[in-house]
Specification:
Blueprint: H1 2-5, H2 12-23, H3 28-42, E1 47-54, E2 58-65, E3 76-78, H4 82-90, E4 94-96, E5 118-126, E6 129-138, H5 146-164, E7 185-188, E8 190-193, E9 196-203, H6 218-241, H7 249-261, H8 265-276, H9 281-298, H10 302-322, E10 338-342, H11 347-352, E11 358-363, H12 371-379, E12 383-385, H13 390-393, E13 399-403, E14 408-411, H14 415-438, E15 452-457, H15 464-469, E16 474-478, H16 480-484, H17 492-506, E17 511-514, H18 542-547, H19 549-562, E18 567-575, H20 578-598, E19 604-611, H21 614-617, H22 620-626, E20 629-632, H23 634-641, H24 660-676, E21 680-682, H25 690-699, E22 703-706, H26 711-719, H27 723-733, H28 742-751
Parallel strand pairs: 9-10, 10-11, 11-12, 15-16, 15-22, 16-17, 17-18, 18-19, 19-20, 20-21, 21-22
Antiparallel strand pairs: 1-2, 1-6, 2-3, 4-5, 5-6, 7-14, 8-12, 9-13, 13-14
Helix pairs in contact: 2-3, 2-5, 6-7, 6-10, 8-9, 9-10, 14-26, 17-19, 19-20, 22-24, 25-26, 25-27
The structure holds phosphoenolpyruvate and magnesium ion (MG).
Residues 476, 478, 517, 612, 633-636, 683-684 line the site of phosphoenolpyruvate.
């Protein structure tokens, strides 16, 4: 104990000694036996054991000093079982003064460990994979210090080299109940980007193997770090200047936020500290990366997790620079059907891969709002996130299926599953080709009713879909997305630039901008609204805008300036009463007055309200006197009509949008709008589903706005539909007492040969 306290970290000579043993002569087993002996002595522990992870998620005791020798290669634990299994599963250290009192303690009589009370263990990590666990134990109830844990972690890094070399012989037989390697495995996660793909696994990791762990001279290592950091900054700057998405404002923001991390003092400080403890620069970077992952596993907050994942990306880049590469292309030999598997991925890292070869991405981390998700969506790459342990369960080039829609990942799928998915993917492709053929044809029903089909967008890159699907315009431009990826509130100038680009890209097609819809689940990193029990019904959207008019004013000013000389369409989210709309409009009027004085105003301004709160439906005639148009946000409207949280998986199938109350409510809106002669649109998810869209057309809706991939299917449905006879059916169904009228509508579509 005294010896440790006086230590102040890992003595460099110990690291060198360990390195020499490992690089020296003798069988791997002999070297490992010597290593655990030395560690036990140096750490003043009665026991030091090394467990190595075998295929099938088994941890095998491979060497010990202090436990019974006959337990070596006999004692095994599953990952997740016992304290050792826990350390491997969580990939984090554990230190307990009274280990046996811990609920996860798993007693193995053959080891004779009952006499040892305290235990400290750390994962043996390499390139993000847990290769094993290194444990020390003491007879007394010893309280291990933070410093001792750090020390053992550093030692484990050195040990990782030996374990990774594959020279250690583990017992060949698998433990009871353990899955064999190479077996098919079906994992689930959360849907981040839709789409389906089949391909071969590529493990995202720095392609540089760390050859030296122990440093000869820390000063030399610090100098190497300095050079590599300078190079890293240069590459990031170059990337900011020219990416595949050059010019796309939001992506620039993402990269800029990210560039800031590269200057993070805490991060670089930790790397320097690890170098001073005797590691080489690359080993130090890796150690900090391991720590980052451990922290990431413990953090619930999505925003913080995303920031930590940016750091992980930077760690990888730095490693590449240290290895002498420029960090530009991580995997030159990418197969042409690559499925990228990663703990997490930074947005810039994703852009490093050749888009043409990348079929899908699977992440252990990830969330739909993460930067990488926004970029992946813009590039139309299917992504499944939060797939637990996928990184350690897949081997490079393993065949994989990724089903982004169902949030399912299949590893080494059986032939049958492969065929089913291959067929599904073929059908998707065929359908996409048939929709492409509709591109030049009018969006008109069989009985000659024209319908305006628009896309929902939120990124500049989404606007390319306007041309692809030949949509009429952007029915909903969610302005909050660029705000969400920035680290600070964008000023008027930045907003104006962005909106101008949106309008330029849309050309003659109209764009309806929705003002900032934040609060609820859409949080801005730099704007906290405090905790609310019911955020969806809380201080969000127009409520924040009216209470903090400065933000709305700035946004409207930017919009007015960007639309100089052309039509500007703006709508306000979550309007609950006409008075709110009038108050918001007043702010717009002030901005327009200024613009007129400057002589730089839009040629025409159209102001609308989103109808997402049922109360507004009961004020529609009054609203239609004030507003130029109304757009129904059915996603929010449904949750408020049924008092049913739109984000709750338990309630997802409880109520149906194709039900009598919804049809009645929407039908009344359509009638009131027709009487007033004002445009009524619908821009929630239901507009993009052919059967739901069919019902909306039957109710009288003539303007729909949807995710870009839905334009084709909805147009195909529309061109085969006679609206006139459907109208009577839908009105009749709205008076029914059924839970849902979906099946009746489906049968109708089938009978009329309307593709839904
Ligand atoms: C809606 O609520 O239907 C809508 C279109 O807005 P969002 O999904 O962005 O809340
Ligand atoms: Mg909404």
């Amino acid at each position: 104990m005294e010896k440790m306290a006086a230590w102040g970290g890992v003595p460099r000579q110990l690291l060198r000694r360990l390195r020499d043993i490992m690089a020296g002569a003798g069988a791997a087993q002999e070297r490992l036996d010597r290593v655990v002996k030395i560690i036990a002595a140096e750490m003043v522990a009665e026991v030091c054991s090394a467990y190595v992870r075998r295929s099938g998620d088994i941890l095998e005791l491979c060497a010990t000093e202090g436990l019974r020798p006959e337990a070596v290669h006999r004692t095994t634990l599953r990952v997740g079982e016992g304290l050792v299994g826990d350390i491997a599963e969580e990939a984090r250290p554990l230190a307990l003064a009274d280990a046996q009192a811990h609920p996860n303690f798993a007693y193995r009589p053959e080891t004779g460990e009952e006499i040892f009370h305290s235990l400290m263990g750390v994962p043996i990590l390499r390139e993000g994979r847990v290769l094993g666990v290194l444990v020390v134990q003491n007879r007394t109830m010893r309280h291990y210090t933070e410093e001792e844990i750090e020390t053992l972690e550093t030692i484990a890094m050195v040990l990782a080299e030996l374990v990774a070399s594959g020279e250690l012989v583990t017992r060949a037989t698998a433990g009871p109940g353990a899955p064999e390697p190479g077996m098919p495995l079906r994992l689930t996660g959360v849907r981040i980007c839709a789409g389906m793909a089949m391909g071969r696994a590529v493990l995202h990791q720095p392609t540089v193997a760390i050859k030296r762990v122990v440093a000869e001279d820390p000063e030399i290592e610090l100098a190497r770090l300095r050079t590599a950091v300078a190079e890293l900054h240069d590459t990031l700057d170059r990337m900011l200047g020219a990416t595949d998405l050059a010019g796309a404002g939001e992506h620039r923001d993402v990269l800029e936020a990210y560039r800031m991390f590269a200057e993070d003092r805490g991060w670089l400080g930790r790397i320097r500290e690890a170098i001073r403890s005797g590691l080489t620069a690359e080993a130090a970077v890796q150690k900090v990366q391991n720590d980052t992952r451990v922290r990431m596993n413990q953090i619930e907050d999505d925003y913080l997790r995303e920031r930590l994942s940016d750091l992980e990306d930077l760690n990888n880049r730095l490693l590449m620079h240290l290895a002498g590469g420029n960090g530009a292309k991580p995997a030159a030999d990418l197969p042409d059907d690559a499925i990228l598997v990663a703990h997490n991925l930074g947005p810039a890292e994703l852009l490093d891969y050749d888009r043409k070869k990348l079929r899908a991405v699977v992440l252990e981390e990830g969330s739909p709002t993460a930067h990488v998700s926004i970029v992946a969506r813009a590039l139309d790459i299917p992504v499944v996130g939060r797939v637990k342990d996928v990184f350690s369960r897949v081997d490079p080039m393993d065949p994989m299926i990724v089903d982004g829609d169902g949030a399912i990942v299949m590893l080494r799928p059986a032939e049958e599953a492969r065929q089913t998915y291959a067929q599904g993917i073929r059908q998707r492709d065929e359908r996409a080709a048939s929709y492409a053929k509709l591109r030049g044809l009018p969006a008109e029903s069989k009985d000659g009713v024209s319908v305006s089909l628009n896309i929902n967008a939120g990124l500049l890159i989404d606007l390319s879909h306007l041309e692809d699907g030949n949509a009429d315009g952007v029915g909903l431009y969610r302005t909050e997305i660029p705000f969400m990826v920035r680290s600070a509130f964008p000023d008027v100038r930045a907003q104006e630039d962005l909106y101008r680009q949106v309008l330029e890209r849309a050309g003659d097609r109209p764009v309806t901008f929705r003002t900032l819809d934040v609060g609820g689940d859409k949080l801005l990193p730099y704007f906290t609204s405090g905790h609310e029990d019911n955020p969806a019904m809380g201080w969000r959207a127009i409520r924040i805008a009216l209470d903090r008019p400065f933000m709305l004013r700035q946004q409207l000013r930017a919009l007015v300036r960007a639309a100089e000389g052309r039509e500007l369409r703006v709508m306000f989210p979550m309007i609950a009463e006409v008075a709110e709309f009038v108050a918001a409009r007043r702010i717009m009027e002030l901005e327009l007055e200024h613009a007129l004085v400057r002589g730089k105003a839009p040629s025409r301004v159209r102001l609308g309200a989103m109808l997402e709160v049922p109360a507004l439906g009961y004020q529609l005639p009054a609203l239609l006197r004030e507003a130029d148009f109304v757009s129904v946000g059915s996603n929010d409207l449904m949750q408020f009509l049924f008092a049913s949280d739109r984000g709750s998986p338990r309630l997802a199938d409880r109520y149906d949008v194709l039900s009598p109350p919804v049809l009645t409510f929407l039908g009344q809106l359509a009638d009131r709008a027709a009487e007033a002669g004002k445009p009524l649109a619908l821009c929630g998810e239901m507009a993009g589903r052919p059967l739901e869209a069919m019902a909306l057309l039957g109710l009288g809706f003539r303007i729909l706005s949807m995710a870009p991939p839905s334009i084709g299917p909805v147009k195909a449905m529309l061109r085969k539909l006679r609206i006139e006879p459907l109208a009577a059916l839908v009105r009749a169904l709205s008076r029914s007492s059924e839970h849902s009228v979906r099946e009746t509508l489906r049968t109708y579509a089938r009978d009329q040969e309307v593709p839904i």
